[in-house]
Amino acid sequence: MTEESPIIELKNLTKSYKNGMEFRALDNANLKIKKGEFVAIVGPSGSGKSTLMHLIGLLDTPSSGTLLIDRNNVTNMSDKERSEIRNKMLGFVFQYHHLLPDFTALENVMMPLLIAGKKRKEAKETAEKLLKEVGLEDRMDHKPGELSGGQNQRVAIARALSCSPAIVLGDEPTGNLDTKTGDMIYELLRQLNKEYNQTFIVVTHNDDMALKADRIIRLVDGKITVQ
Amino acid sequence: MYELKIALRQVFSRKKQTFFAILAVALAVAVITVMMAMLSGFQGELIKSSTENNPHIVINPQDEKEGFIHLYRYNSALISDKEGVIAVSPKYLGQAALEHKDNAEGISLQGIEPEAEDKVMRVSKDIVEGSFLSLTHTRHGIVLGDKLAENLGVQLGDRVDAVFPGSKTTSFKVIGLVHTGTAADEVTAYARLDSVQEFFNEPGVVSTIGIRVADPYKADSISSSIERENELNAVSWIEANAEILNLLNTQKVFVNVFYILIYGIAGFGIANTLITIVAQRTREIGILKAMGASQKSIMIVFLFQSVILGAIGLVLGTILGYIATITLQSYKIAVPQEMYFGLQTLPLEVEPLNFVYAAFFAFIINIISGIYPARKAAKLDPVKAIESA
After folding, report:
1. Segment-wise mean pLDDT, segments of 10 residues, chain A, 227 residues
2. Which residues span the domain enclosing A88?
């Protein structure tokens, strides 16, 4: 039973915006994602991919329905509890790297660990190890402004992984990179997924990339059409 | 405390912005400390001038018409025994004329007991030639205001004649010159109480009794105890200067309003800077939230920033204020004497407590100014924040 229970479960999850007319960005989504799965979410622009990511990432709150993460209902949690889950269980990689510009690569990767209350020394060791893993051991003391797009995105991946989250969310993590770098980043994600058995959910426009995933989820007009 | 780390990094990465925010606080604190130095200097100087060279309590005759105090020896002795009383000086005041060769000047002749008078009025301090206390053993000695001596054309050792209708013209030897820097120098003459009483044919009475007490701020209670127990008409310096002291207190209200305005301006400066920082950092705030920073933490980050700006500002401000005060002090800015109760230069007093107050309030204002931007940052919707360009 424990083996089979999904790490993420959506039950009739709906997000709607009222702007004169009701608009359902996500419409009654039901979805189960197993631990260690690499899931690609595809669909046209405005189909609700990002909304889904934001809901799973606890950055947004659903209008109705339930979201279970590791069997915990997170829909009605306080800001503090949600922040803690974001910190400990979720890692984000965005289309733009979104690193803190005033901090070095190493400090950026350390940040989630420091937020988690880890000691500086421990955080530094973990961050160094991760940066080495993404191939940036000689760029640790550089600030985002001094790194290339691909390098920054690798720092962002290292940062997403720093607290060893159960779930890594990528919102078009390669969308802003050239094809070659994008492929490299994607391969890196896939490799890390296998290595650490973390669950990866990645939004992508790239069909080749989606095909390499364990599962493809297609969204159209806020509805999950293919699982 | 990663919040502090982020706050420090964010504050110091925008140097110009930070510089002007700090400057706003620093200037506010500096202006306020200088104003406080002026105000307490003025008040201090006023109190000093009312208490240092003047009796703290004056006993006046009960009967205005008669104008004399009887039994002054007995009363003086009683007052001397009171707790807190340092010196008691009975004094006979009379108008007369002094003549020397062809010169004649109207004077205010003060008959005093030299030692007692010196203790109450510190006359010796203002003596420029001769000695005040040698009056004690010079029955017909006289100490003159320096201007008076100049007008009469007399010098130390010369003799002058005191003239009063109905009195026997008496010759006094000039044994001292006094300079107080006031108009009194043109009319004041001191002689021994017994000589003056004899000259005016009024033995056994005085015009006033001056009293010096250990703590000038207790003058009021000692004064009322004298009135109650000795049935004398006593007026303390506080009563005598009530109007000026009231004026100062009224002035304080206005000055406080002024302080609030200055602090308000500085506070808006800080708030404005922080709102700008929040606007510029919106995406970063979103990212921090995505990384698990709670609303409370985001709030702390920005409150820290306002505290950092404020703390540096107030340290600079107090230093700036101190330097400005010292500089103004050394310039000795002249003020019209009549308008400032006899003060010749603008008094500034470096009162450490004033700096503490100025800094403390600046700090409070800072924290208050930081609350709105910090709350704004904390409440940002992470999705919108991250997607903001």
Report:
1. 73 86 86 90 87 90 90 88 91 86 93 92 92 89 91 90 90 80 83 86 85 88 81
2. 35-63+74-226
